[in-house]
Amino acid sequence: MANAAPNEGVPKAKVFISYSRKDMAFADRLEAALRSRGLEPLIDRAEIYAFEDWWQRIEGLIVKADTIVFALSPDSVTSDVALKEVAFAASLNKRFAPIVCRQVPQSVVPDALARLNFIFFDDSNRFEASADQLAAALKTDITWIRRHTEFGEASWRWEENGRPSGLLLRPPVLDQAEAWIAYSPDGAPSPTIETKTFIATSRKAELASKRRNQILNAIVYGSMLVIIAGLIGWINQDYIKGRWRWYTTERPFVAANIWPYVLSEAAEQTLKPKDNFRECANVQGKDYCPVMVVVPAGSFMMGSLPTEKGRSNTEGPRHVVTISKAFAVSKFPLTFDEWDTCVAYGYCESVSDSSVGRGQQPVFNVSWNDANRYTAWLSEMTGKRYRLLTEAEYEYATRAGTQTAYPWGDDIGNNNANCDSCGSQWDNRQSALVGSFAPNSFNLYDMVGNVMQWVEDCYFPSYEVQTPQGTLKAPTDGSAWIGGNCSGRVVRGGSWRQSPEYIRSANRDRRAFDARGGQFGLRVARTLAITP
């Protein structure tokens, strides 16, 4: 069945069905059809219980719904209740999906629906085909729509309860809300003014809370200087140690070497593809943070052809991915110098270099959890969103406009990368210093070979997975594929110990999220405030 439901654990799309009581037989059939296609219908007949406040309950169902399906008929367009449901949903900027169960003149269709395309159910012989078409439409952009529902519902509760501070958003959910409101798919309903106000008020409250904490920390710091002798017996407490480390070690370093170099929003707006920037001091012999390269927006064919030498079934089916906004990628894999900065001035754990040496060697012996700890630290220090690349972003950045097996062509060649039989001096012996080989067309180094690099995605065995509920497909917008069993995460790029087929642009591999080893490193991405 087309566009079947996602696997267990992924939220179902919630659909409120607005209809006339004279169309109840049609509504019953529609409810069953949507439920069988992996959706969660909300219908007042089924969901409103005895003794409940009738309209308050309907409001609650509409608030929870991702999409409002309105069954057009001569009776529904004259029903006060149905029209009241449409008006309330429109006030929340809900997504509408009008369907025709019985023909009505265009002139009597409510304004909120008249400008939209209709799906026709007026031919009973084509009911199942129409239901497939409707289910597919309801699942379009469902991740973004689901956020629209969640944040809209939170905003509604906040307003209904008199705007208490206890219902405001807090990080990391607040960060997610701001990222969501900054990106809207084409044709998606705009967030309401109430939702925007709710998110903005949440940020103001968070900033006020931080200011209070800063004042409190200053008081604590001053008190510590006055009564330092009395704190000798307390110095082993984690909080006191953490505050002392921040004020005596970390803050002076960040204030001198990171904060003055962070890009302003205006500077970000001027960035162009292939531009380099670094948000820390550039001191000879002191590699504090990664150099970032701006990667342009664009589309590409992800995966490999069945005829590609060394190809695995995990690399298909091929599909078009469109990345709508430019983003930044570290020019090299993260180095030991950069990792050790987080160890010295943050909360990363020191990792062994296995006697290879540190400095400009790519860091390894890091797990997926370790990699995210580093990006969280760098984000906190700069105030910018550093993160792991998604799997689609990684392949897009690796290919850099190519569709060949490797970024440089279809043959492995000689001394193009570090792998087993790549023709380099480090083959199957150890990692090489970053930048030891030519960059790709985006000016990115070591996208394949040397060390494998963690990405954000959970691992799925292919880009199209059959489940008991139907077919799951990889995202086509460049976002991470999250869901199912996330104990396995994706690593990309291959390593110095692996043969050439494992360092192809399309090659993908799975490792446990807590796995460490001499082949596991990372590369970072940064979300940019660039208007497309």
Structure description:
This protein is an alpha/beta fold. The chain folds into two domains: 127 residues, 3-Layer(aba) Sandwich (Rossmann fold); 264 residues, paralog of FGE (formylglycine-generating enzyme). It contains 14 helices and 18 strands. The N terminus is likely disordered.
- Helical stretch tally: 14
Strand content: 5-15%
Q: Quick one: CATH superfamily of the largest domain?
A: paralog of FGE (formylglycine-generating enzyme)
CATH class identity of the largest domain: Alpha Beta
Cα end-to-end separation: 36 Å
- The main sheet orders its strands as 2-1-3-4-5
Largest sheet: 5 strands, parallel
* CATH architecture call of the largest domain: Alpha-Beta Complex
Which key features would you list for this structure?
alpha/beta, disordered N terminus, Rossmann fold, 18 strands, paralog of FGE (formylglycine-generating enzyme), 2 domains, about 15% strand, 5-stranded parallel beta sheet
Give the structure's gist in a few sentences.
The protein is α/β, with parallel strands linked by helices and 532 residues long. It is 34% helix and 14% strand. It has two domains: 127 residues, 3-Layer(aba) Sandwich (Rossmann fold), CATH 3.40.50; 264 residues, paralog of FGE (formylglycine-generating enzyme) (Alpha-Beta Complex), CATH 3.90.1580.10.
